[in-house]
Design brief:
heterodimer, A: 85 residues, alpha+beta, two-stranded antiparallel sheet, 3 helices, 2 strands, B: 270 residues, alpha/beta, 8 strands, globular
Chain lengths: 85, 270
């Protein structure tokens, strides 16, 4: 039986490893969010409102992030416009 | 020179108060003058864990509000010399504490010659927890080897690094120490529990010590005596190691692996 358990155990991933993998992804995500300025969600909303005045857009299609590159803080806006008819 | 040490975790029920009680008692046993403050206003429990619940006359909030002097409110421990407890208020709400009030108490304790001021933080990341960590020089991050505790510890680390006095002033950052509690080496070996290495890896904090899961902790709470005083207990030895390492001694980590029982112990031991 012990041998059988051992073989089954080999196939199934240990729960501690699952926990570690999940935490690694989660913490990386939460740490990146931690450094974003407080005004970001509100600014995102306002930018969306302005764009929506001119273009019919999907609210979820606007991605906004603050990154650091070469010592500069970069505000990145990414929006996919709908196909024009 | 006095050092302010916050015992914090984010998550509740992981062993902050147990750790505060044993850590402060351990430091006092080494001959240091120690004050331990309960910041959990409205839900005080440090007094109960340290067995002085019937001697609380004035509390932390009374001192902050100027209704009692610090000397009146400090409760002298009956077992260990040089150890004093400042209980939280049980009746006020948590807004009774102010940054200026807390600062004044900490400054007064420093002036009174305390070597270590231990701040037992409430759970959460609200005002009480932020006040407990604001003036800290060092922090004990109490964590269980369990997903939600690790996540919350990471959150509190972020707050230590951004919202403490040291962070705001751009001083040397707070020294962070990991205290892993309720550690069960047997379950780690079968792959059912995050290992010390896993948690260190995830949180990126230096390990001060792992405290093995132990029945003695509940027994100690029941009796109102910090577990560190129960000399035969593995948890007590682990807490003693934590104190020694905190004071700069090189002590090898123990209780990280399953104790191999000899035949004699298997037959006659518990």
């Amino acid at each position: 039986m012990a041998l059988l358990d051992y073989l089954i155990g080999q196939r199934k991933k240990k729960s501690a490893n699952v926990a570690k993998d999940r935490l690694q992804i989660l913490l990386a995500h939460e740490r990146s969010e931690r450094n974003t300025p407080d005004y970001l969600p509100k600014m995102r909303e306002e930018i969306l409102a302005v764009i929506a005045k001119y273009v019919d857009i999907d609210q979820d299609k606007l991605q906004i992030s603050v990154d650091e590159a070469d010592g500069f803080e970069v505000l990145e806006l990414n929006l996919v416009l709908p196909e024009s008819h | 020179m006095s050092r302010v040490v916050v015992v914090t975790s984010g998550k509740g029920g992981v062993g902050k108060t147990t750790t505060s009680a044993s850590f402060s008692t351990g430091l006092a046993l080494k001959g240091y003058k120690v004050a331990v403050i309960d910041f959990d206003v409205g839900l005080r429990n440090l007094d109960l864990i340290m067995g002085c619940e019937r001697r609380v006359v004035y509390d932390f909030v009374n001192v902050v509000q100027g209704e009692a002097s610090l000397q009146q409110a400090l409760i002298k421990d009956k077992r260990v010399p040089n150890l004093y407890i400042l209980a939280a208020s049980q009746t006020r709400d948590k807004d009774a504490l102010t940054l200026e009030g807390v600062e004044k108490v900490i400054e007064d304790l420093k002036e009174a010659g305390f070597d270590y001021i231990i701040c037992d933080s409430p759970a959460g990341i609200e005002k009480g927890a932020q006040l407990a960590l604001y003036f800290a020089d060092e922090a004990l991050i109490v964590t269980n080897p369990e997903v939600s505790s690790v996540r919350d510890s990471d959150r509190i680390l972020g707050i230590l690094q951004a919202k403490s006095k040291r962070a705001e002033r751009g001083d040397e950052p707070i020294v962070e120490h990991l205290v892993l509690t309720r550690y069960n080496p047997a379950r780690v070996e079968t792959g059912e529990m995050l290992s010390v290495e896993d948690v260190i890896d995830l949180l990126n904090v230096k390990l001060l010590g792992a405290i093995p899961e132990s029945e003695d902790v509940l027994n100690a709470s029941n009796a109102g005596s910090p577990v560190v005083l129960d000399e035969n207990s593995a948890a007590a030895q682990a807490y003693n190691d934590v104190v020694d390492r905190f004071l700069g001694e090189e002590v090898e980590h123990r209780f990280l692996t399953v104790e191999k029982k000899g035949l004699f112990k298997k037959l006659f031991g518990k």
